[in-house]
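Q: Structure tokens for this one, please.
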Amino acid sequence: MEKQNRKEFLGTGAATAAALFGLPVGVVEVKRPPVVHHVFFWLKNPASTEDRDALVAGLKTLAGIPLIKELYVGVLANTEKRDVVDASWQVSELMFFEDLAGQANYQSHELHQAFIKNCSHLWEKVVVYDAINLYSRII
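A: Here is the predicted structure, written as tokens:
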């Protein structure tokens, strides 16, 4: 039997799984934690790379909170300018929680409180969007 490398094996396995569940190859249904917490930050000094990097570093410390099931930290992408795109913010974080209680307890968690204490001097404005996830897929 010919030896299969890891990439070939994983590709074959994903295709087989997709076929078993009636999904198109390359599409995988995902059971993502249902509570979505998306936060956008406007820096006091939006042109400061140092302030942006300090905020990003602070946000990464939140990964130590076990209530957070997934954490993404990002900066504004240089995408097409359109009326529906808000390009006024500098840093965002996206979190997923198992339930609303986890999201509520995150608010008072010591690492979250330390983040606010250590980084709030960096931002001028914060906007939070919380949602319940109804559907996820990875292509």
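A few notes: Residues 1-29 form one domain. The first strand starts at residue 28 and ends at 29.
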